């Protein structure tokens, strides 16, 4: 956990800047209201370095590439290739060299593919650099000038305007109507007002909470300001997050761990078998070099050369299916990791919600009016023209008291820009037919400020000055002396005022942002037009309730997670009340959750006071259900800590995020999920998966596909391993019983890297079965290569195939007049045809086996033989390859085969049908005796 606090001591002094006056800040940073001189700026640039993100020294690309050739499975394949080349040198002409080169090709293809995937993830820090602006406006020696962002130094006076991104951390010394979007840094969706005066509130202890500080990478939504830079480069809040994102080690995925385990088991088994039969060969007097070649053949026959490319291609097919369901996978192993996800730590804004404010409720004249898809829905009967006229003054007011600007996108469509709340209000007014040309001319404005909590605009309308006011209800309602009822202003009683405040609180507890709207006619001669004279004796028009609504599919997705045994934990930088209300709305927590926010939501300050053991208990170690756990006001270090503790508890953790602040946690998680639409470049580059529609429901769809991928990997591992037994048994018969070798090494290669591959991919394309999301996540202790899988592959299906293949070999020889003990040279056409019969028996046995392996329990007849077109195409390719190997001169030369007569296929087909029927009997017994 050391990295989480790496820069905190360095930031202590700068954090206290928010408590100082303007003069004290300038004195502390040794600057003035005229800015730095050019000479001093150059000196400080040399002292502090450029305002850019220093690249964290990572593992060199050459080392990363070499790693792809030295992991455990690659080492096993290198050994197999080396043994093949050695055997070819000792006994040429048996095709061992061809096998060796084929294995080397498999290693090269997989290494290059994996390296390309890993290299893309290294662009995360570069994305961080691109996110920051390239230039900045500063005051130096009393002159305004534009400089490169990299040349900013502590002490520079920074000029900030609406729409600009802040290039460094700075303390405001002047601010006019400033509102900032801090979502990329803090994760909180609502704009934050900025002011220049010192902070006296002792409750504010963190720099990110100080209203007089601005931070690199955040955006000025409205207003303008003058700020003095106090941190640049890697010392900014942005830089600290960049450091965390670049240095976090994600660790191997569950599938990578399992592949290593499978490889170790196969290695131990192969070497044991090879050494055992090498010793047996010596003991029966076969001779050292013949026994050695025999041992090498046993080892190579056991090594599943096709396993790595088959797994890789199956993962790639799974990622393509996920992409069709709006989930783009960057790291192939993440496909399977999704399937064993036990916890999703989800952000709120943009993941659970649509990431845009929308007007959802109105309240006027004692009536709550809902808004559905931009349409007003009045209680009771369908609305009349009179109902619309009652709402018209409120609509006019929210359109007038509004600074949202209209613009055009590059494609020509009209858009609104500005504060998200004002954009939502103006958008709603336009939907109700309140057009710009219908609005009265604006004569003046009393802008919003943090003390008044309201905004007023003054308009010339029908020969009168009209003031429209909107703001926080608790600040607005005490100024209202009348309320509008059916077009007339009537006196407002204290009881009515209290009722309206109660309604406002009720809206707030439902995660709404609530504004009160009022109007007033200003009498001629009123002077001055300030807040004292204008914002009094107001006529209340109504309450408007806005929210960032959840995606429609989210409640169902949360329910699916619950059925699938996946815990969903909300971890947001947003307000606790907003988090709790949304959690209730989407079914993440039950309605009976305690109303007290502090009882239901864990805030960042409380998390800081916990030990890891306390957090582990809170996160549910030893508890069955902690579905109602919510975290709010979370900083990046908090999110990282939660993920780290969950992983230490043995959970497989998926984390969602869209901002710069989410990057460390995305990289630390087993699965990092970024938003494709609203996400920052760094979040997308750091993540393992990108949601193309920014919808939580797409994560659940991806988990479903991930579970199917794991099930499919088990299917084709069973399928591939089953063919190893008929490849081994001919060598056992050759070494122990002095029988002719029924299958040559090139023919083993033909099965492992040729005929088996495409049908195995067909198994990898099996769709998720309907009940897969009603099962709990598989335990981390569950093994891909389980005892039941090995017994089924080696001890049942494989033995049946081996029996059919060996019986076919000796049957064909006997049909041609061969007797036991008669010499049979490897160049004899009869021997070549007999080994071809063995090869054909294995291939046809695998045709039956692919249908048998579609399910461990469900009958192939119940699944249907034509429901997976990929398998059918795979079988056509498999049989076509067999025909090329058996009936073309090139195939005969490379694989040592000979053309077979048509009559020889009859017994082989019967044998394949027998294998399928035997498996059907086994499944029937298993279903009756689970």
Structure, explained:
- With 930 residues, this protein is an alpha+beta fold.
- It folds into four domains: 176 residues, Calcium-transporting ATPase, cytoplasmic transduction domain A (Distorted Sandwich), CATH 2.70.150.10; 184 residues, 3-Layer(aba) Sandwich (Rossmann fold); 180 residues, Calcium-transporting ATPase, cytoplasmic domain N, CATH 3.40.1110.10; 175 residues, Calcium-transporting ATPase, transmembrane domain.
- The chain is built from 36 helices and 27 strands.
- Strands 10, 11, 12, 15, 16, 17, 18, 19, 20 and 21 form a ten-stranded mixed beta sheet that branches. The chain has an eight-stranded mixed beta sheet with strand order 8-27-26-25-9-22-24-23, sandwiched between helices. Strands 1, 2, 3, 4, 5, 6 and 7 form a seven-stranded antiparallel beta sheet that branches.
- It is elongated.
Q: Uncertain segments of ≥5 residues (pLDDT<50)?
A: 1-14, 621-626
Percent in helix? 40-55%
CATH superfamily heading of the largest domain: HAD superfamily/HAD-like
* Number of β-strand runs: 27
Q: Give the overall shape.
A: elongated
